[in-house]
Each structure stands twice: as structure tokens, then as C-alpha cells.
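Methods, example record. To illustrate the input and output format used throughout this study, we show the complete record for 2-(1,2-epoxy-1,2-dihydrophenyl)acetyl-CoA isomerase. The sequence lines were provided to the predictor; the line carrying C-alpha cells was produced by it.
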Amino acid sequence: MTAIALHRNGSVLRLELNRPEKLNAVDTPTLQALLDGLRDGAVDPTVRVIQLTGAGRAFCAGGDLTGGDTRGAVETANEVVQAIATMPKPVIAGVHGPALGLGCSLALVCDLVVVAESAYFQLAFSKVGLMLDGGASALLPAAIGRARAARIAMTAEKVSASTAFEWGMISHVVSDDAYAAELAVLTTALADGPTQAYAWIKRALLAATLSDLRAVQTVEEQGQRILVTTNDFADGKRAFREQRTARFTGE
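The corresponding predicted structure is encoded as:
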């Protein structure tokens, strides 16, 4: 089973996170496969829209903390986010189930996000002694403002699909029954749309709202490299595996 399943339907390329047994948590090889798929889609003239989804019960449970190869994961995740942000074609996310950690970043950086109403978002980095990464430190405040971004980042609260829509995190929220149909209709509309106009719209919105994305990602990389060496992260990681609350000491 491949970590990223590629599906082609006419001018639509669907990239599906395909680790359902881990709720599509990503490690470095998975991220590299996703990056390769995005780059291939960017240069393929027959692809007019890219759809990003997750197999099974989740969109993406974030980074794999249960034994996957995560060497260089932060850097590769940043390249994935950059590839989506600078993609000269629309990228639409289909989110059902949880979108956690990097999964939240992947959804936020997509141009349109169709979310089933039972889904939710959570940036739970602080629960294991880490900071936001994957560009979330830029993506989140650009979408919902600094105060709400700080609230989500520091408290690690779950954000329901309806609240995410109300706050401006996502573009569409639909009933679970209507989710697949709505995602298909919107994807088809984008595939039939003015691709060159979409590219310039994306370029302008990126310049207006995320011009500092790369610089913010650099700070995130620096912070995570330090934080993964702390005692707080060590206990946070153990606590995650043992399903208990971490005991942080600030060290």
C-alpha cells in the first residue's frame, strides 16, 4: 500500500493520504511522496485542479509520533506547504474526520476547503511541548486573526467544522451526507474554470496575505529543532504514547 494514493479523473488529480491505520499521520517518506505528487501535478499541463483528501476515518492526524521516519519532516512539510501555496492551479481540500497538527496546516493552505460537519481541527503541539509548524504560525492568523490563532495554538482546543467556518478558517462546511457530492461539484467547477485566471488570483492572494510564509517557516524550523531536545517534549511524547497528560517542567 502506497502512503499517497494518486487518482486521475480527466483534468482532476486527487492526492489521497493513504495511511488509514494511523489516521493518515505523516512521516518523512509520506511527505516526500506528497511533495512529488504536487510537483508532478504542477508541471502536467493536463492537470487543471488538484484535490487533497485522506483515506479512512480522518483527513490527517498530523506528524507520526509512533515510530515513523521523521528525520527532516519539518523541512519537508514546509516544502509541501510551499508547493500548495505557490501551485499555479487550484488546490481543494476535502476534510472529513480530524485534521490535526500538520493536517490542519495542509487544509489551511489549500485554496478551498470542503469540510464535513462532523470533522474538527486541532493544533495540539503544545500538548507535547512543541510549537506550530508547517507554516501554521502564518496560515492561522492570516485566516482568523492573531488573538484566535494564539488561543488555538496555546490551548490546543478542538475547533468544530461549524466554528472553523464561522471564524474563516475554511470555505465550505456541509452535512456529512452531502460532503462527497459537494466536494465533487466544486472540484469539477474548478477544473472547468479559467486556469490562468486562478493562477493569478492565487499569486495575488499569496502576496497580500502570506508574503512572510517562508520567513515564518524558518522560525518554526528553528524553534522545533530546539524544542525536540527539551525534557518537556520527551515527556510529552511519552505521554502521547501512554495516553496520559504530560508533566511539563519548563526544561
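Annotations derived from this record:
The chain has ten helices and nine strands.
The chain has a mean pLDDT of 96.
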